[in-house]
Amino acid sequence: MLFVLTGCGDRVDKMIYFYTDQNNNTYTISSSEVRYDPITPKESSSGVYSGGEKAVIPITQKTFRKIVQLAETLQQDTLSHIDRREMRTAILLAESNGKDISRVILLPSEKRSALEKLLEELVD
């Protein structure tokens, strides 16, 4: 199920995206901020990997709309979707007014890399 929200003003602003990368670091993205919750060595499968420090980063509407555009592109790219979580996959969940409207498990792709690059730049 997918709702295309680009250009819908208030509806887009009420969206929240949850992105879990291949290392299980999580990003909670709203119209005003990105919350980064990294995995700790104790939580990692290797017992060594750390995603870094938790962060809350204020973002502009322009940045949020860019994230929305990338997220919508990933939601529409069904060739990169799979049914079960496997190594190297990521999860993208879109929520509006507390209800899931889209949940996809994503294989590695250029489109996914573009979203990850933007999110990583924000939290660095």
Query: How much strand?
Result: 25-35%
The neighbouring-strand order within the major sheet is: 4-3-2-1-6-7-5
Q: How widely separated are the two ends?
A: 33 Å
Measured on Cα atoms, how large is the radius of gyration? 14 Å
Structural category is alpha+beta
Give the fraction of residues assigned to helices.
25-40%
Q: How is the biggest beta sheet arranged?
A: 7 strands, antiparallel
**Shape, principal axes of CA atoms:** globular
Number of helices: 3
Summarize the structure.
This protein is of the alpha+beta class and 124 residues long. It has helices at 10-13, 61-76, 110-123, and strands spanning 15-20, 26-29, 33-37, 55-58, 81-82, 90-96, 99-106. It has a 7-stranded antiparallel β-sheet.
Can you offer a commentary on this structure?
The radius of gyration is 14 Å and the shape is globular. It is of the alpha+beta class and 124 residues long. Helices cover 27% and strands 29% of the residues. The protein has a domain at 15-61 and 77-98.
